Amino acid sequence: MSLTAIILTYDEELHIERCIRSLKSVASRIYVVDSFSTDATVEIARREGAEVVQRKFKNQADQFQWALDNLPTDTDWVMRIDADEYISTELATSMTTLIPRAPASVSGFYVDRLVVFLGRPIRHGGFYPMRVLKIWRTGLGRVEQRWIDEYCVVKQGLVDYCPGDLIDENLRDLTWWTDKHNKYSSRRMIDLLDYELQLGLSQHALSGNVSRRQVVYHRIKANIYPALPPYLRALAYYLYRYVFRLGFLDGQQGLVFCFLQALWNLFLVDAKLYEARRMIAAEGLESFIKHLRDAQGLDVSPPRLESEPRRSA
């Protein structure tokens, strides 16, 4: 197919070979946008036939939009995929069947994302099927500029569906996972603080074609979740995932996943939000932004406008 796959990486030597090899039957071109990895990520990616460029990392949304704007993409289609993801055989088959025959009215394709946690597919708790836009015609895709949980949209046309799973299976241990999500909690705190104080740090309304689930999820995050009582909203979300959406059916892995992803992480977000308010009240917003940059490496600055000129893709 005439398809370019774009992968963002930083120290992904454990996953990058698996990811690239799963793409070889569907992608005619593979780009790795690396954030100056310190391990063998770049060497493995080049060995597997990927084209590698390097750029300083700010956040996922900024990095991927830069890739869309600047990589010399000469294929008809673009696919977004993370380094710890890979496509199933069923998804590869449906992609090679459906995408080349897509009518001109179709501008993109949803796929089902399946999380594998501690060796077990998470199929309950409302986490599956998690239908996401991952494939679109070159030039039509944009990325919502948020600090976390950003989504992609196509600016026009219809979005179809490719059956099969995009499998998200990180092979690192729980210590790494909790450290990663501790950092994610700081990014979620920034988004909530932005909603509360209207700082203009995130682009919360990107026009385009998105799934109904994304629209509902976005409205809940933007209008309902911030209005709920801190800390209690984390507990409510956990109960929703684990009890009402049957997360307990995924066994011990489901318990750990729901507890860490829904309760622990969001409780930590609220604690960091409280800390942020205290710092801003005592020292001012500029001092707090400097603290995020110096202590956590988070360069909190307004995103580029959607109307900025683009060089390609």
From TrEMBL:
Per UniProt, residues of the Glycosyltransferase 2-like domain are 5-111
Top-level taxon of origin: Bacteria
InterPro entries named in the record: Glyco_trans_2-like, Nucleotide-diphossugar_trans
* Family matches, as PANTHER family: GLYCOSYLTRANSFERASE, POLY-BETA-1,6-N-ACETYL-D-GLUCOSAMINE SYNTHASE
Q: Which family does it belong to?
A: Belongs to the glycosyltransferase 2 family. WaaE/KdtX subfamily.
The protein here is known as Glycosyltransferase 2-like domain-containing protein
